[in-house]
Amino acid sequence: MHETEHYVGLMSGTSLDGIDAVLAGIGPTGQPRLLRSHYLPYIDSLRAQLLALHTPQPDEIHLTAIAANQLARLYADAVKGLLDGIAPGTVRAIGCHGQTLRHRPADGYTLQIGNAALLAELTGITVVADFRSRDIAAGGQGAPLVPAFHARALRHPGAHRVIANIGGIANITDLPANGPVRGWDTGPGNMLLDAWIKRHRGAQYDRDGAWAAGGSVDPALLDLLTQHAYLKQPPPKSAGREQFNLDWLDATLSRLGRAIDPADVQTTLLEFTAASLADAVKRECGGTQELYVCGGGAHNGALMGRIGALLPAVKVGATTTLGIDPDWVEALAFAWLARQTLHHEPGNLPGVTGARGERILGAIYPA
How far apart are the C-alpha atoms of 208 and 301, rounded to whole Å? Predict the structure, then answer.
């Protein structure tokens, strides 16, 4: 029987805001326990560089490699801030998601950067990274991967739950009391909301949805947004900046053929996020009793209110109710996924990603 092991989980998502770091204790059953957490924000220049790398540009291979090195050093700083007095030798591994620059499962590849070899060198801790590629090699979407963790940590034997992770992209995990676990990206989370307020107000995000709460939904714009082809695809499916970005929003606004107050656009984008998530729950997760939100969207009171209004028969709250702070669920998931890798246990759910079967995920960079 193994004793409790310690793992670090690092998550930097599509919101491009910074690094979530957690220290997890994981016992013989694989049930994780959050011990410590730490957040390290991106500096504006790095955020701009990473955002630029989402589209093709001259010398992008070199620029991507330099950004990966910079990320590795930031990841190492995050680990140092997290451990603060705890010897690195007591940590079995770091699970590092990396920063996604391309996610193209239809073309057979995905790219998350962060130079895991350099991270292992800087921390003296074994690093597990590149979790998505093996699932894609097996015919899957490579994402979302967090539903496997949700099923391990948050499933309830007597209630039909849905866990909604609202980061840059929103995804849901369907956890019926009995039956298969399913999960997929429902569409945009905070990505468009953050980009729009950054353009018009210079803020990184709409705190508590206050700007959106002051506008009005434009029904014609909402109708155009909800015509996005991704929303009509059946799961399994995954999305990213390739599908939902400012260029697409600008093109949609052009199709509308008239000007809209920027605040009303923000309100409509919030409604789009809430409605695309709620529609997925109603269409695919019949009988849902409880929905718990994690990720940055859990702090957006206006967004939480709209999700609750669109799902009146469902108890809607944050994962705080289940004992896990919504800010740390994803990072905790990658600590758990690193544990799965080192224990030679699968980290994917074929019913979620569409892979041909369960696979051991990740590439290992020994300390």
Answer: 5
CB-CB contact of 50 with 67 (8 Å): yes
Same domain, yes or no: 274 and 360: no
Coil/strand/helix, residue 319: helix
State the total domains in the chain.
2
Q: Are residues 122 and 172 in the same domain?
A: no
Q: What is the pTM of this model?
A: 0.91
Report which secondary-structure segment, H or E, holds 102. strand 99-104
What is the reported pLDDT for 181?
A: 95
Distance between CA atoms of 179 and 157, rounded to whole angstroms?
Answer: 11
CA distances from 36 to 13, 80, 93, 266, 294 (A): 20, 12, 15, 35, 17
Residue 78: exposure state from Cβ atoms within 10 A (0-12, 13-18, ≥19) = buried
First to last CA, the chain: 25
State the amino acid at position 364 in one-letter form: I
Task: Give the chain's residues under pLDDT 70.
Answer: 1-2
Are 250 and 265 spatial neighbours (Cβ–Cβ below 8 Å)? no
CB within 8 A of 120, min separation 6: which ones? 94, 126, 127, 365, 366, 367
Please tell me whether residues 186 and 266 are part of one structural domain: yes
Output the pLDDT for position 308: 98
Q: Is residue 59 part of a domain?
A: yes
| Alpha helices (H) along the chain | 44-52, 60-83, 116-123, 132-137, 146-153, 191-201, 210-213, 219-225, 229-232, 246-256, 262-284, 301-310, 329-342, 350-353
Domain range holding 105? Answer: 5-142+328-365
Task: Tell me, yes or no, whether 287 lies in a domain.
Answer: yes
In this prediction, residue 1 carries a pLDDT of 43
Whether 318 and 108 have beta carbons less than 8 Å apart is answered as no
CATH of the domain at 318: 3.30.420.40
pLDDT tens per residue, range 67-81: 999 999 999 999 999
Largest CA distance in the chain: 66
Residue 259 CA: distances (Å) to CA of 127, 186, 262 = 50, 28, 9
Specify whether 247 is located in the same domain as 133.
Answer: no
292 strand-pairing partners: 163, 317
